[in-house]
Amino acid sequence: MEKVASAAAISLVLFSSVALAGETVKIKDITGREVEVSVPVERVILGEGRQIYFTAALDTDNPFGRVVGWRDDFKKADLDGYNIYLQKFPEMEKIPTFGGMKDGTFDIEQAVALKPDVIIMNTEAKSATEESGYIEKLAAVGIPLVYIDFREKPMENTDDSMRIIGKLFGKEERAEDFVKFHDEQIAKVTDVLAKQVDLKKPVVFMERAGGYSDDCCMSFGNENFGKMVELAGGINMAKDIIPGTFGTVNPEQIIASNPDQVIVTGSNWELYVPGGKWVGVGPGADKAEAARKLSELMKRPGFTDIKAVTDGNVHAIWHQFYNSPYQFVAVQQIAKWLHPDLFKDVDAEATFKEMHERFLPVEYHSGYFASLKAGS
Questions:
Q1: Are 282 and 265 in contact (CB under 8 A)?
Q2: Rg of the Cα trace of the chain?
Q3: Distance from C-alpha of 107 to C-alpha of 110, rounded to nearest angstrom
Q4: pLDDT surpasses 60 at 14
Q5: pLDDT-derived band of residue 127, with 50, 70 and 90 as boundaries?
């Protein structure tokens, strides 16, 4: 089993040599902190339950073997994915759970009692972790905390984060294999786009978690899904409206921008918002039901008469691509939506299936995408 790691993700200053068993090494995490850790770690606390997405890619045979504690978000944020893992690994329900660092419900005494070798945290928890003095408190009892990042600047930090975790787990070669696959899949899009002259880039409105609440509308600045849109040959509508990674736009801004395409992120959030208007794409999702709910969302003020809706260029994509090392799948699918003629031979579904076969312990289940455009 694994421990909650307040991990400042190790940037590319990773060690070229493989650490010996039980060797204490200095790891530079994503925030630039140098952390001493005895590797390979055997007991890990995951600062977020969805960190199992990377754990499973490295510890494929036994993804919960190191995990001694984790945050309680996996089941709530990705119920379908959680149930798929639960069916194969029923022991995961016995792992002690924690609240979040940001909302003040992380139990440090519980964490210490689990005797983790490391706690891995996402960078968005850094401010709360520092303000609470948890790093010093954990260090005083010999528990290192390491930051990683698949969310704030994922297109910049995913490869380094995977290498950091590979170092912690003693799975450097496996991590490099994943990084190579990740980068090759993105290159299938970016290499094609780089050869285009006078490429017409459609304006795309990325709505974050559309229908999760009645408010309109959460979106992305020049990172995360916003950056994925740019890599896929589009113009992120909110790029100059939202200064950071996440923010909001109002219906008037959507109308004024009149985007060519709308992409809504969604997941099975029945445990968060029972019976909500969110679009439940994800593993094994009902695509027809997802398309129906997506169509309903386009009846809100700000959407009804924009070009994307009139032309049927409205899509839904699995929200959890935003917080996992799987973003290359999203880049491929978005590119295919934006430039179908250029990417006839790119199949994001097949790419994700191959990733499951090569790196994950569970079978692939279709359902991560939905569209109002026939054939998309």
A1: no
A2: 20
A3: 5
A4: no
A5: confident
Q: Smallest Cα–Cα separation from 79: which of 327, 276, 360?
A: 276
Q: Which long-range contacts (CB under 8 A, 24 or more apart) does 89-96 make?
A: 89/63, 89/64, 89/361, 91/64, 92/64, 92/67, 95/1, 95/64, 95/67, 95/68, 95/69, 95/70, 96/68, 96/69, 96/70
The 3 state secondary structure assigned to the chain is CEECECCCCCCCCCCCCCCCCCEEEEEECCCCCEEEEEECCCCEEECCHHHHHHHHHHCCCCCCCCEEEEECCHHHHCHHHHHHHHHHCHHHHHCCEECCCCCCCCCHHHHHHCCCCEEEEEHHHHHHHHHHCHHHHHHHCCCCEEEECCCCCHHHHHHHHHHHHHHHHCCHHHHHHHHHHHHHHHHHHHHHHHCCCCCCCCEEEEECCCCCCCCCCEEECCCCHHHHHHHCCCEECCCCCCCCCEEECCHHHHHHHCCCEEEEEECCCCCCCCCCCCCCCCCCCCHHHHHHHHHHHCCCCCCCCCHHHHHCCEEEEEHHHHHCCCHHHHHHHHHHHHCCCCCCCCCHHHHHHHHHHHHCCCCCCCCCEEECCCCC
For 62-92, the pLDDT digits (tens) are: 999 999 999 999 999 999 999 999 999 999 9
End-to-end CA distance of the chain: 40
pLDDT in tens, 248-274: 999 999 999 999 999 999 999 999 999
pLDDT value, residue 373: 83
- Taking the C-alpha atoms of residue 190 and residue 338, their distance in angstroms, rounded to an integer, is 13
Burial (Cβ within 10 Å: 0-12, 13-18, ≥19) of residue 360: middle
Question: What pLDDT score does 109 carry?
Answer: 84
pLDDT for position 21: 53
How does the average pLDDT of the chain come out, rounded? 92
Q: Is the pLDDT of residue 199 over 50?
A: yes
